[in-house]
Amino acid sequence: MSNNEKRSPYQCDPFDYNSHEIDRSSYSYFNYGINSSIYNIPQTPSDPQTQNIHGFESDPSYLMNFTDCLHGSMDYNTLSKAFDISCSSSEVISPPLLDQEDNSNNKATAEGVGDRNPSTPNSLISSSSNEAGAAHHEHENDQDSDKISNKKDKHPKVVSEEAPGDHEDMLKKVSKAKKKEKRQREPRFAFLTKSEVDHLEDGYRWRKYGQKAVKNSPYPRSYYRCTTQKCIVKKRVERSFQDPSIVITTYEGQHNHQCPATLRGSINAVGMLTPSFLASAASGGFDNGSPRFPHELLLTQLLSTPVNNNQLQLQAHHHHDPASSMLYSNLMSTFHENQQQRQQLYVPHDYGLLQDLTPAFSHKQEP
DNA sequence: CGACTTTGACCTGCGC
DNA sequence: GCGCAGGTCAAAGTCG
Protein backbone atom coordinates (compact mmCIF):
# COMPACT_ATOMS: atom_id res chain seq x y z
CA MET A 1 0.00 0.00 0.00
CA SER A 2 1.13 3.51 0.52
CA ASN A 3 2.75 2.73 3.75
CA ASN A 4 6.37 3.35 3.10
CA GLU A 5 7.43 3.17 6.67
CA LYS A 6 6.39 -0.38 7.11
CA ARG A 7 8.70 -2.90 5.64
CA SER A 8 6.96 -5.34 3.42
CA PRO A 9 6.61 -8.68 5.17
CA TYR A 10 7.99 -10.51 2.20
CA GLN A 11 10.98 -8.30 1.83
CA CYS A 12 14.06 -9.51 3.50
CA ASP A 13 16.55 -7.72 5.59
CA PRO A 14 19.76 -6.94 3.87
CA PHE A 15 21.90 -9.21 5.89
CA ASP A 16 25.24 -8.15 7.19
CA TYR A 17 27.01 -11.34 8.08
CA ASN A 18 29.69 -9.55 10.02
CA SER A 19 27.37 -7.82 12.36
CA HIS A 20 25.25 -10.78 13.39
CA GLU A 21 27.51 -12.91 15.45
CA ILE A 22 24.83 -13.91 17.85
CA ASP A 23 22.28 -14.44 15.21
CA ARG A 24 24.62 -16.50 13.14
CA SER A 25 24.98 -18.86 16.01
CA SER A 26 21.28 -19.34 15.92
CA TYR A 27 21.76 -21.13 12.66
CA SER A 28 24.38 -23.45 13.94
CA TYR A 29 22.29 -26.43 13.07
CA PHE A 30 23.78 -26.18 9.66
CA ASN A 31 27.14 -26.94 11.07
CA TYR A 32 25.85 -30.00 12.77
CA GLY A 33 24.21 -31.15 9.62
CA ILE A 34 27.45 -31.08 7.79
CA ASN A 35 28.22 -34.45 9.25
CA SER A 36 25.46 -35.91 7.15
CA SER A 37 23.42 -36.98 10.07
CA ILE A 38 19.81 -37.62 10.68
CA TYR A 39 18.53 -35.74 13.61
CA ASN A 40 15.51 -36.42 15.55
CA ILE A 41 14.57 -32.99 16.55
CA PRO A 42 12.57 -32.27 19.61
CA GLN A 43 9.76 -29.86 19.18
CA THR A 44 10.80 -26.44 20.10
CA PRO A 45 13.75 -26.53 22.41
CA SER A 46 11.95 -24.18 24.65
CA ASP A 47 9.31 -26.77 25.14
CA PRO A 48 10.36 -28.71 28.17
CA GLN A 49 7.63 -31.21 27.61
CA THR A 50 9.04 -32.29 24.34
CA GLN A 51 12.54 -32.38 25.57
CA ASN A 52 11.45 -34.73 28.25
CA ILE A 53 9.63 -36.81 25.78
CA HIS A 54 12.45 -37.22 23.42
CA GLY A 55 15.20 -37.26 25.94
CA PHE A 56 17.14 -35.42 23.36
CA GLU A 57 19.48 -33.81 25.79
CA SER A 58 20.61 -36.97 27.42
CA ASP A 59 20.37 -39.59 24.76
CA PRO A 60 23.16 -39.56 22.20
CA SER A 61 21.34 -42.04 20.05
CA TYR A 62 19.32 -39.21 18.69
CA LEU A 63 22.28 -38.27 16.67
CA MET A 64 23.11 -40.75 14.03
CA ASN A 65 25.01 -40.91 10.87
CA PHE A 66 22.98 -40.98 7.74
CA THR A 67 25.42 -43.36 6.18
CA ASP A 68 24.93 -45.71 9.07
CA CYS A 69 21.30 -45.43 8.46
CA LEU A 70 21.64 -46.20 4.81
CA HIS A 71 23.89 -49.12 5.33
CA GLY A 72 21.75 -50.60 7.96
CA SER A 73 24.25 -50.44 10.75
CA MET A 74 21.53 -49.43 13.07
CA ASP A 75 18.54 -51.43 14.00
CA TYR A 76 14.94 -50.48 13.66
CA ASN A 77 14.72 -49.37 17.21
CA THR A 78 17.38 -46.82 16.71
CA LEU A 79 16.01 -45.73 13.43
CA SER A 80 12.47 -45.42 14.54
CA LYS A 81 13.74 -43.62 17.55
CA ALA A 82 15.44 -41.20 15.28
CA PHE A 83 12.19 -40.58 13.53
CA ASP A 84 10.38 -40.61 16.77
CA ILE A 85 8.22 -43.38 15.53
CA SER A 86 7.70 -46.94 16.33
CA CYS A 87 4.84 -49.25 16.83
CA SER A 88 4.67 -48.20 20.40
CA SER A 89 5.59 -44.60 19.94
CA SER A 90 2.19 -43.37 20.82
CA GLU A 91 2.23 -45.27 24.04
CA VAL A 92 5.51 -43.83 25.01
CA ILE A 93 4.81 -40.30 24.06
CA SER A 94 1.23 -39.78 24.82
CA PRO A 95 1.22 -39.26 28.54
CA PRO A 96 3.58 -36.32 28.77
CA LEU A 97 1.78 -34.56 26.00
CA LEU A 98 -1.51 -34.70 27.71
CA ASP A 99 -2.18 -31.49 29.37
CA GLN A 100 -2.71 -31.97 33.00
CA GLU A 101 -4.72 -28.88 33.50
CA ASP A 102 -6.91 -29.34 30.54
CA ASN A 103 -9.26 -32.24 30.37
CA SER A 104 -9.84 -31.29 26.76
CA ASN A 105 -13.51 -30.85 27.34
CA ASN A 106 -13.04 -27.35 26.17
CA LYS A 107 -11.70 -28.45 22.86
CA ALA A 108 -14.89 -30.06 21.82
CA THR A 109 -17.11 -27.35 23.11
CA ALA A 110 -14.98 -24.62 21.72
CA GLU A 111 -15.00 -25.56 18.09
CA GLY A 112 -17.06 -28.64 17.82
CA VAL A 113 -13.92 -30.57 17.37
CA GLY A 114 -14.61 -34.05 16.31
CA ASP A 115 -12.61 -37.10 15.52
CA ARG A 116 -9.19 -37.27 14.13
CA ASN A 117 -9.07 -36.85 10.47
CA PRO A 118 -10.16 -40.25 9.28
CA SER A 119 -8.40 -39.77 6.04
CA THR A 120 -5.04 -39.67 7.72
CA PRO A 121 -3.87 -43.08 6.81
CA ASN A 122 -0.77 -43.64 8.79
CA SER A 123 -0.98 -44.08 12.47
CA LEU A 124 2.68 -44.77 12.73
CA ILE A 125 3.30 -41.12 13.09
CA SER A 126 3.06 -40.46 16.75
CA SER A 127 -0.60 -40.14 17.32
CA SER A 128 -0.05 -38.30 20.50
CA SER A 129 1.88 -35.61 18.81
CA ASN A 130 -0.96 -35.22 16.44
CA GLU A 131 -3.73 -35.33 18.92
CA ALA A 132 -4.11 -31.67 19.43
CA GLY A 133 -2.88 -30.99 15.99
CA ALA A 134 -5.66 -33.08 14.67
CA ALA A 135 -8.10 -30.83 16.37
CA HIS A 136 -6.34 -27.93 14.90
CA HIS A 137 -6.50 -29.38 11.45
CA GLU A 138 -9.97 -30.69 11.76
CA HIS A 139 -11.52 -27.84 9.89
CA GLU A 140 -8.70 -27.83 7.43
CA ASN A 141 -9.94 -31.07 6.00
CA ASP A 142 -12.48 -29.15 4.14
CA GLN A 143 -10.93 -26.15 2.60
CA ASP A 144 -14.15 -24.28 2.26
CA SER A 145 -15.29 -24.85 5.75
CA ASP A 146 -11.77 -24.21 6.77
CA LYS A 147 -11.99 -20.66 5.63
CA ILE A 148 -15.25 -20.20 7.38
CA SER A 149 -14.07 -21.61 10.63
CA ASN A 150 -10.85 -19.72 10.37
CA LYS A 151 -12.81 -16.58 10.07
CA LYS A 152 -14.66 -17.54 13.17
CA ASP A 153 -11.40 -18.25 14.86
CA LYS A 154 -9.95 -14.97 13.88
CA HIS A 155 -12.84 -12.91 15.06
CA PRO A 156 -13.77 -14.04 18.51
CA LYS A 157 -14.76 -10.48 19.28
CA VAL A 158 -17.82 -10.89 17.19
CA VAL A 159 -18.91 -13.67 19.43
CA SER A 160 -18.44 -11.58 22.49
CA GLU A 161 -20.42 -8.76 20.99
CA GLU A 162 -23.26 -10.98 20.16
CA ALA A 163 -23.29 -12.66 23.47
CA PRO A 164 -22.18 -10.35 26.22
CA GLY A 165 -22.17 -11.16 29.89
CA ASP A 166 -20.95 -14.42 31.31
CA HIS A 167 -19.34 -15.38 28.07
CA GLU A 168 -16.11 -13.95 29.33
CA ASP A 169 -15.24 -17.08 31.20
CA MET A 170 -16.24 -19.19 28.33
CA LEU A 171 -14.12 -17.13 25.98
CA LYS A 172 -11.17 -17.55 28.26
CA LYS A 173 -11.68 -21.26 28.26
CA VAL A 174 -12.07 -21.26 24.53
CA SER A 175 -8.92 -19.31 23.92
CA LYS A 176 -7.07 -21.48 26.39
CA ALA A 177 -8.27 -24.57 24.63
CA LYS A 178 -7.35 -23.13 21.29
CA LYS A 179 -3.91 -22.31 22.51
CA LYS A 180 -3.41 -25.87 23.52
CA GLU A 181 -4.81 -27.15 20.29
CA LYS A 182 -2.62 -25.01 18.12
CA ARG A 183 0.50 -25.62 20.04
CA GLN A 184 0.97 -28.94 18.33
CA ARG A 185 1.47 -29.45 14.67
CA GLU A 186 1.60 -32.25 12.22
CA PRO A 187 4.95 -33.97 12.13
CA ARG A 188 7.42 -32.24 9.94
CA PHE A 189 10.33 -33.35 7.92
CA ALA A 190 12.85 -30.98 6.52
CA PHE A 191 15.19 -31.63 3.67
CA LEU A 192 18.16 -29.78 2.45
CA THR A 193 18.52 -30.01 -1.25
CA LYS A 194 21.12 -28.47 -3.40
CA SER A 195 19.20 -26.75 -6.11
CA GLU A 196 19.00 -23.55 -7.99
CA VAL A 197 15.26 -23.81 -8.06
CA ASP A 198 13.44 -22.83 -4.92
CA HIS A 199 10.30 -24.81 -5.42
CA LEU A 200 11.36 -28.31 -6.30
CA GLU A 201 9.06 -30.40 -8.41
CA ASP A 202 7.97 -33.20 -6.16
CA GLY A 203 5.03 -34.71 -7.93
CA TYR A 204 2.36 -32.99 -5.89
CA ARG A 205 0.54 -29.85 -6.78
CA TRP A 206 1.04 -26.92 -4.48
CA ARG A 207 -0.51 -23.55 -4.11
CA LYS A 208 1.54 -20.80 -2.65
CA TYR A 209 -0.33 -19.00 0.08
CA GLY A 210 2.29 -16.83 1.62
CA GLN A 211 5.79 -15.59 1.67
CA LYS A 212 7.66 -14.08 4.53
CA ALA A 213 11.00 -12.62 5.19
CA VAL A 214 13.10 -14.77 7.42
CA LYS A 215 14.87 -13.13 10.24
CA ASN A 216 18.57 -12.64 9.57
CA SER A 217 18.27 -14.18 6.17
CA PRO A 218 18.23 -12.39 2.86
CA TYR A 219 16.04 -15.12 1.46
CA PRO A 220 12.30 -15.26 1.98
CA ARG A 221 10.36 -18.30 3.09
CA SER A 222 7.49 -19.45 0.92
CA TYR A 223 4.46 -21.29 2.17
CA TYR A 224 2.68 -23.85 0.04
CA ARG A 225 -0.41 -25.93 0.51
CA CYS A 226 -1.29 -29.11 -1.33
CA THR A 227 -3.99 -28.24 -3.79
CA THR A 228 -5.71 -31.58 -3.57
CA GLN A 229 -9.04 -31.21 -1.87
CA LYS A 230 -9.10 -32.25 1.75
CA CYS A 231 -5.35 -32.70 1.82
CA ILE A 232 -3.86 -30.74 4.66
CA VAL A 233 -0.22 -31.07 3.77
CA LYS A 234 1.83 -27.93 3.74
CA LYS A 235 5.36 -27.22 2.92
CA ARG A 236 7.73 -24.38 3.44
CA VAL A 237 10.54 -23.58 1.16
CA GLU A 238 13.43 -21.37 2.02
CA ARG A 239 16.99 -20.98 0.99
CA SER A 240 19.85 -21.47 3.34
CA PHE A 241 21.41 -18.15 4.06
CA GLN A 242 24.71 -19.83 4.76
CA ASP A 243 24.77 -21.70 1.52
CA PRO A 244 22.36 -20.12 -0.95
CA SER A 245 22.66 -23.15 -3.18
CA ILE A 246 20.79 -25.18 -0.60
CA VAL A 247 17.04 -25.19 -0.48
CA ILE A 248 15.37 -26.12 2.78
CA THR A 249 12.04 -27.79 2.20
CA THR A 250 9.91 -28.60 5.19
CA TYR A 251 6.90 -30.85 4.80
CA GLU A 252 4.14 -30.81 7.34
CA GLY A 253 1.36 -33.34 7.43
CA GLN A 254 0.54 -36.41 5.47
CA HIS A 255 -0.94 -36.60 2.03
CA ASN A 256 -4.20 -38.47 2.07
CA HIS A 257 -4.05 -39.19 -1.61
CA GLN A 258 -1.73 -40.61 -4.16
CA CYS A 259 0.90 -38.51 -5.73
CA PRO A 260 -0.50 -37.17 -8.99
CA ALA A 261 2.84 -37.63 -10.65
CA THR A 262 2.92 -41.25 -9.65
CA LEU A 263 -0.19 -41.75 -11.64
CA ARG A 264 1.42 -39.98 -14.52
CA GLY A 265 4.60 -41.97 -14.09
CA SER A 266 6.81 -39.04 -13.41
CA ILE A 267 8.06 -37.90 -10.10
CA ASN A 268 10.86 -36.35 -8.20
CA ALA A 269 12.10 -38.19 -5.20
CA VAL A 270 11.77 -35.34 -2.82
CA GLY A 271 8.04 -35.46 -3.02
CA MET A 272 7.95 -38.98 -1.81
CA LEU A 273 9.76 -38.11 1.34
CA THR A 274 6.67 -37.05 3.14
CA PRO A 275 6.35 -37.59 6.84
CA SER A 276 4.05 -40.55 6.46
CA PHE A 277 6.29 -42.03 3.90
CA LEU A 278 9.42 -41.64 5.94
CA ALA A 279 7.67 -42.71 9.04
CA SER A 280 6.49 -45.84 7.37
CA ALA A 281 9.81 -46.55 5.85
CA ALA A 282 11.70 -45.90 9.01
CA SER A 283 9.47 -48.13 11.02
CA GLY A 284 9.86 -50.84 8.48
CA GLY A 285 6.36 -50.97 7.18
CA PHE A 286 3.55 -49.17 5.52
CA ASP A 287 -0.16 -49.38 5.68
CA ASN A 288 -1.26 -52.96 5.76
CA GLY A 289 2.24 -53.88 6.68
CA SER A 290 3.76 -53.41 3.29
CA PRO A 291 4.75 -50.57 1.03
CA ARG A 292 2.02 -49.34 -1.21
CA PHE A 293 4.31 -48.25 -3.97
CA PRO A 294 7.61 -49.45 -5.30
CA HIS A 295 9.37 -46.35 -4.12
CA GLU A 296 8.14 -47.04 -0.63
CA LEU A 297 9.69 -50.45 -0.79
CA LEU A 298 12.83 -48.86 -2.06
CA LEU A 299 13.17 -46.47 0.78
CA THR A 300 12.29 -49.18 3.23
CA GLN A 301 15.32 -50.96 1.97
CA LEU A 302 17.36 -47.83 1.86
CA LEU A 303 16.66 -47.34 5.49
CA SER A 304 16.88 -50.87 6.68
CA THR A 305 19.08 -53.20 4.75
CA PRO A 306 22.81 -53.28 4.28
CA VAL A 307 22.87 -53.12 0.54
CA ASN A 308 25.26 -51.48 -1.77
CA ASN A 309 24.47 -49.01 -4.42
CA ASN A 310 24.33 -51.52 -7.19
CA GLN A 311 21.77 -53.52 -5.38
CA LEU A 312 19.70 -50.46 -4.88
CA GLN A 313 19.98 -49.54 -8.48
CA LEU A 314 18.87 -52.98 -9.45
CA GLN A 315 16.05 -52.78 -7.04
CA ALA A 316 14.84 -49.54 -8.50
CA HIS A 317 15.31 -50.81 -11.97
CA HIS A 318 13.57 -54.02 -11.15
CA HIS A 319 10.41 -52.22 -10.35
CA HIS A 320 10.45 -50.39 -13.64
CA ASP A 321 9.15 -47.51 -11.73
CA PRO A 322 10.35 -44.01 -12.50
CA ALA A 323 9.50 -42.97 -9.00
CA SER A 324 11.82 -45.56 -7.57
CA SER A 325 14.57 -44.80 -9.98
CA MET A 326 14.39 -41.10 -9.41
CA LEU A 327 14.03 -41.53 -5.71
CA TYR A 328 17.07 -43.67 -5.73
CA SER A 329 19.13 -41.36 -7.85
CA ASN A 330 18.09 -38.32 -5.89
CA LEU A 331 18.83 -39.91 -2.59
CA MET A 332 22.10 -41.39 -3.65
CA SER A 333 23.33 -38.28 -5.34
CA THR A 334 22.48 -36.33 -2.27
CA PHE A 335 24.20 -38.84 -0.05
CA HIS A 336 27.26 -38.88 -2.20
CA GLU A 337 27.35 -35.17 -2.10
CA ASN A 338 27.13 -35.44 1.64
CA GLN A 339 30.22 -37.46 1.83
CA GLN A 340 32.22 -35.80 -0.84
CA GLN A 341 31.28 -32.21 -0.54
CA ARG A 342 30.05 -32.14 2.99
CA GLN A 343 26.64 -31.19 1.83
CA GLN A 344 23.79 -32.40 3.87
CA LEU A 345 20.43 -33.99 3.78
CA TYR A 346 18.38 -33.50 6.86
CA VAL A 347 15.56 -35.69 7.83
CA PRO A 348 14.67 -34.28 11.16
CA HIS A 349 11.49 -35.09 12.89
CA ASP A 350 10.59 -31.55 13.42
CA TYR A 351 7.62 -30.10 15.12
CA GLY A 352 9.03 -26.66 15.19
CA LEU A 353 10.75 -24.29 12.92
CA LEU A 354 14.13 -25.05 11.66
CA GLN A 355 15.31 -22.15 13.63
CA ASP A 356 13.80 -23.73 16.65
CA LEU A 357 16.15 -26.62 16.31
CA THR A 358 19.14 -24.53 16.93
CA PRO A 359 19.41 -24.23 20.65
CA ALA A 360 19.21 -27.97 21.06
CA PHE A 361 22.18 -28.37 18.82
CA SER A 362 24.00 -25.50 20.27
CA HIS A 363 23.44 -27.02 23.60
CA LYS A 364 25.07 -30.18 22.48
CA GLN A 365 27.89 -28.40 20.86
CA GLU A 366 28.87 -26.51 23.91
CA PRO A 367 27.55 -28.12 27.01
C1' DC B 1 -11.98 -18.28 -16.81
C1' DG B 2 -9.80 -21.08 -13.60
C1' DA B 3 -5.51 -21.84 -11.40
C1' DC B 4 -1.95 -19.81 -9.36
C1' DT B 5 1.04 -15.97 -7.40
C1' DT B 6 1.75 -11.66 -5.13
C1' DT B 7 1.50 -9.01 -1.21
C1' DG B 8 -0.37 -6.04 2.62
C1' DA B 9 -2.82 -6.94 6.64
C1' DC B 10 -3.82 -9.53 10.35
C1' DC B 11 -3.49 -13.21 13.91
C1' DT B 12 -0.84 -15.96 17.19
C1' DG B 13 2.71 -17.46 20.21
C1' DC B 14 6.58 -16.44 22.78
C1' DG B 15 10.21 -14.04 25.19
C1' DC B 16 11.34 -10.20 27.89
C1' DG C 1 1.72 -5.85 28.52
C1' DC C 2 4.56 -5.10 24.68
C1' DG C 3 7.13 -6.10 20.69
C1' DC C 4 8.86 -9.28 17.51
C1' DA C 5 8.76 -13.05 14.34
C1' DG C 6 6.30 -16.81 12.29
C1' DG C 7 2.28 -18.10 10.02
C1' DT C 8 -2.07 -17.31 7.45
C1' DC C 9 -5.70 -14.83 5.02
C1' DA C 10 -7.66 -12.91 1.11
C1' DA C 11 -8.07 -9.39 -2.49
C1' DA C 12 -5.82 -8.16 -6.51
C1' DG C 13 -2.94 -9.36 -10.16
C1' DT C 14 -0.98 -12.62 -13.59
C1' DC C 15 -0.83 -16.39 -16.67
C1' DG C 16 -2.06 -19.98 -19.90
UniProtKB/TrEMBL annotation:
<protein>
    <recommendedName>
        <fullName>WRKY domain-containing protein</fullName>
    </recommendedName>
</protein>
<feature type="compositionally biased region" description="Low complexity">
    <location>
        <begin position="117"/>
        <end position="130"/>
    </location>
</feature>
<dbReference type="GO" id="GO:0003700">
    <property type="term" value="F:DNA-binding transcription factor activity"/>
</dbReference>
<feature type="compositionally biased region" description="Basic and acidic residues">
    <location>
        <begin position="134"/>
        <end position="172"/>
    </location>
</feature>
<keyword id="KW-0539">Nucleus</keyword>
<feature type="compositionally biased region" description="Basic residues">
    <location>
        <begin position="173"/>
        <end position="182"/>
    </location>
</feature>
<dbReference type="InterPro" id="IPR036576">
    <property type="entry name" value="WRKY_dom_sf"/>
</dbReference>
<dbReference type="GO" id="GO:0005634">
    <property type="term" value="C:nucleus"/>
</dbReference>
<keyword id="KW-0238">DNA-binding</keyword>
<dbReference type="GO" id="GO:0043565">
    <property type="term" value="F:sequence-specific DNA binding"/>
</dbReference>
<dbReference type="Pfam" id="PF03106">
    <property type="entry name" value="WRKY"/>
</dbReference>
<keyword id="KW-0805">Transcription regulation</keyword>
<feature type="domain" description="WRKY">
    <location>
        <begin position="195"/>
        <end position="260"/>
    </location>
</feature>
<feature type="region of interest" description="Disordered">
    <location>
        <begin position="94"/>
        <end position="186"/>
    </location>
</feature>
<dbReference type="InterPro" id="IPR003657">
    <property type="entry name" value="WRKY_dom"/>
</dbReference>
<dbReference type="InterPro" id="IPR044810">
    <property type="entry name" value="WRKY_plant"/>
</dbReference>
<keyword id="KW-0804">Transcription</keyword>
